[in-house]
C-alpha cells in the first residue's frame, strides 16, 4: 500500500512486502546446467568434461563450487570421476542400476507399504508378459527356461526366492522395453525381501509358483499375448493375496 507523499521532500515511499527468499546454491546451479547438457546428449559417453581449473575459469565460480557440482553429478551416476594424471569427470550413460538404486532408496527411505509393492507388480507385470509374448527371442526363452529349471529344484529358501525373482526379471527383459525392464530390475530386491518368509513358502507354494511360471512361459513361447497377460495377472495377484494373508510385516525391509 502506498503511503501518502511526504510534503517535506516530495518523495513517495512505497511499502513493499517481501517474503523470505531461498537462493539456490551455486553448485546446484552449475550441476543443473551440466546435467541438462549431458541429458541432451551434448557430450558423448566416455568423454571428459573440461578439467576443474578450466570450469573455474569458464564459470567464474570457485574451485569448491565446481568440485561440489561434479560430486553431485557423480552421485547421480551421470559422470564417473577418475583421479590421477589422466583423471577427470567422464560422462556416463545412465543405466538400469541408477533407476534401481533410486527406487531402492525410495522404498527404504519412505517405508513403502507391502501392499503398494504388490499393486505396482500387478500394474507392471501383466504388461511385461504381454510384450514378452510379442517380442521374445530365443535367448529370452532360454533364460526363462533356466529360471524354470532352478525353481523346480528342491533348493534352499534363498535359492527358490532367487529363481523366482530371476524369472520375473527375465519376463521383463523379454518385453524388450527398457523402462519396464529397468523398473522390474529396480523392484527385484524388494520383491526378494517381500517374499522372504519361511512360514509362507512351503512346498505347496513352491509347486504352485513353478507351475504358474511354466504356463506363462508357454504362452510367451507360443506368442499368445492374451494368455500371457491373463496368467500373469492371476499369478501376481494370487501370490500377493496369499502373502498378505500370512504376512505380519506391513512395510518392506530392504537390507542395505
Ligand atoms: Zn512368481
From TrEMBL:
Keywords: DNA-binding, Transcription, Transcription regulation. It comes from the Bacteria. Residues 24-94 form the HTH gntR-type domain. PROSITE patterns: HTH_GNTR (PS50949). InterPro entries: GntR_C, TF_FadR/GntR_C, Tscrpt_reg_HTH_GntR, WH-like_DNA-bd_sf, WH_DNA-bd_sf. This is FadR family transcriptional regulator. It comes from Nocardioides mangrovi.
Amino acid at each position: 500500500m502506498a503511503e501518502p507523499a511526504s510534503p517535506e521532500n516530495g518523495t513517495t515511499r512505497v511499502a513493499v512486502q517481501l517474503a523470505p527468499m531461498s537462493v539456490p546454491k551455486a553448485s546446484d546451479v552449475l550441476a543443473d546446467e551440466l546435467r541438462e547438457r549431458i541429458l541432451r546428449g551434448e557430450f558423448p559417453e566416455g568423454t571428459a568434461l573440461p578439467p576443474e581449473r578450466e570450469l573455474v575459469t569458464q564459470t567464474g565460480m570457485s574451485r569448491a563450487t565446481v568440485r561440489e557440482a561434479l560430486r553431485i553429478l557423480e552421485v547421480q551416476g551421470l559422470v564417473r570421476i577418475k583421479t590421477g594424471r589422466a583423471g577427470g569427470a567422464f560422462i556416463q550413460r545412465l543405466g538400469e542400476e541408477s533407476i534401481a538404486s533410486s527406487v531402492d532408496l525410495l522404498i527404504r527411505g519412505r517405508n513403502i507399504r507391502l501392499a503398494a509393492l504388490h499393486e505396482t507388480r500387478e500394474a507392471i507385470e501383466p504388461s511385461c508378459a504381454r510384450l514378452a509374448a510379442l517380442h521374445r527371442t530365443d535367448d529370452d526363452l532360454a533364460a526363462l527356461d533356466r529360471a524354470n529349471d532352478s525353481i523346480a529344484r528342491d533348493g534352499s529358501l534363498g535359492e527358490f526366492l532367487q529363481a523366482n525373482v530371476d524369472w520375473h526379471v527375465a519376463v521383463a527383459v523379454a518385453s524388450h522395453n527398457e523402462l519396464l525392464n529397468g523398473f522390474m530390475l529396480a523392484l527385484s530386491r524388494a520383491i526378494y525381501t517381500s517374499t522372504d518368509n519361511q512360514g509362507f513358502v512351503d512346498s505347496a507354494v513352491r509347486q504352485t509358483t513353478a507351475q504358474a511360471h511354466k504356463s506363462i512361459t508357454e504362452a510367451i513361447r507360443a506368442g499368445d499375448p492374451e494368455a500371457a497377460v491373463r496368467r500373469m495377472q492371476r499369478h501376481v495377484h494370487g501370490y500377493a493375496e496369499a502373502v498378505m494373508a500370512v504376512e505380519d510385516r506391513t512395510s518392506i525391509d530392504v537390507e542395505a
